[in-house]
Amino acid sequence: MHGGEKIFSSRLPCFGKSKSRLTWRKYRAREIISKSQQQAIALAITFLASVILTGACGKSITTSWEETGLKIGALIPLTGDLSSLGQPMPEVIGLAVNTVNQCGGVNGKPVTLVVEDSQTNPEVGVAAMTQLVEVEQVAGVVGGFASGVSTAALPIAVRSQVMLISPASTSPIFTQKAQQGEFEGYWARTAPPDTHQARALAKLAREKGFKLVSIVTIDNDYGIGLEQQFIEAFEQLGGTVVNKYQPSRYDPQATTFDNQVLLYSFGNTPEALVAILYPQTGALWLKAANQQNLLEQTTLILTDGVYSPDFPEQVGKTNKGKSLLAGAIGTVPQVNGQGLANFTKVWQEQTGQEVSVFAPHAYDATVLLMLAAEAAGVNTGEGIKSKIPEVAGGTGKKVTDVCEAMELVRQGNKINYQGASGNVDLDENGDVAGNYDTWAVEADGKLKVTGKIIPD
Q: How far apart are CA 133 and CA 325, in angstroms?
């Protein structure tokens, strides 16, 4: 399963003799992929084959290795701990690519998309990123999603002058490294850093009246970064993290959990437990805690890492059918871009699905790569890097429609793309600002957005 490209015969928009192809590669997983995951991946491949490679001319063109148009990669967790987040993303990114291809492509040629599975694993992410950069020779990559994968992929991107835009890697470590000049401008993200979420989470906890909380986190860049930022923010609001000096952290590869560690996480009688988790391992952790009758003792405060309708189902229900997570609260980046309504409409028409968490961010990341390449007039990472700040948040005309934006850029006009996720105005560190939705888990396990919160 290490190689295995799929080459499709395609129908393209009117590009004369231009050719395009879609490459799909998946590295060997460390664990068996479930049947539902296989079905989801198969659905994504089918969708990509149809939306990217189907156009208006009606002329069938066989794909080719010779490609002179813009080629972008997607580094996505189709399997592993964040698979519930990643599985819709090939469709999302494919929708953006298809939209641009149908209105003229980039620099006169269709865009090619290459999808790689990171398996939510930094080591696999390195292999996948290397494949995208050195073999496929992409100019830009949408991803990674897990902060640890992005951390591992960035040295490859910088060394090879490939632009990396993440829709979901929120660790504060990226801001710090960008400030130190480590990324040389080849990094940006369309989701706000967890310095913002930490303040929103702390504010939510205090608004709910909690003064004493405990914290448990997945032991990776995302978990530790948000943990440290939350402790600082919560203390600034007058709260106390009872296990501040020995926070509970679990191994991202763990499948079982020591009872003493579980008991320690709920020790010192906290009023709430802040749980910074990934879905698969987080569900296992919470199930183990429930077996020790610990979940009934406190309120759970969750984060964007598990904001998925599937997560309560993964954790389970009581014998009476009540969700084990009933009453849990949390935060997730607010999606409020001027382009959101149109994206949602087209997405639902194309897929019949609801918009999933970070889907608008992935769409916007893809659009920014293509707009920047068009503005630069070259299909290179260096060119994209030079124009990303201009198209994302410059002084030009504010525009939400992707095809209108592309046409304005072709005519030499400056634009300020207004995305589906937000205004995507990138600062000097490649960060966007953001507010947050608050949410809760109802008795039947459904997620309900309960309000909005502005980090102070």
A: 42
d(CA 48, CA 143): 17
Number of H helices, E strands in the chain: 15, 18
Q: Is the pLDDT of residue 14 over 80?
A: no
Strands 112-117 and 60-62: unpaired
Instruction: Report pLDDT for 401.
Output: 97
| Mean of all residue pLDDT scores within the chain | 87
Residue 49 burial (10 A CB sphere; 0-12, 13-18, 19+):
middle
Greatest CA separation for the chain:
70
pTM of the model: 0.87
CATH of the domain spanning 71-193+336-411: 3.40.50.2300
CA 319/CA 377 separation, integer angstroms? 61
Distances (CA, A) of 297 to 127, 202, 237, 266, 329: 43, 20, 24, 8, 15
Rg (CA), the chain: 22
Token look-up 């990324």 returns: 183
Share of the chain above pLDDT 90, in %: 80
- Which residues pair with residue 398 across a beta bridge? 416
User: Looking at this protein, which amino acid is placed at residue 450?
Assistant: T
134 CB neighbour count, 10 Å cutoff: 12
Half-sphere exposure in the Cβ direction for 360 (13 Å, CA): 26
Before 144, cis peptide (omega within 30)? yes
Q: What are the extents of the domains in the chain?
A: 71-193+336-411, 195-335+436-453
User: Contact at 8 Å (CB) between 414 and 365?
Assistant: no
- Kindly report, residue by residue over 148-192, the tens digit of the pLDDT: 999 999 999 999 999 999 999 999 999 999 999 999 999 999 999
Alpha helix stretches (DSSP H) within 208-358:
221-236, 259-265, 279-291, 311-315, 340-351
Terminal C-alpha separation, the chain:
48
Beta strands in 20-108 (DSSP E): 22-25, 60-62, 71-76
Euclidean distance between CA atoms 56 and 66, whole angstroms: 22
CATH superfamily of domain region 195-335+436-453: Response regulator (3.40.50.2300)
275 confidence band (pLDDT: 50, 70, 90): very high
Can you tell me the distance from the alpha carbon of 387 to that of 377, in angstroms, rounded to the nearest whole number?
10
pLDDT > 50? residue 33: no
Two domains, one topology: 71-193+336-411 and 195-335+436-453: yes
Is pLDDT of 277 > 60? yes
Looking from the CA of 394 toward its CB, the CA atoms found within 13 Å total: 18
Could you give the CA distance from residue 240 to residue 89 in angstroms, rounded to a whole number? 38
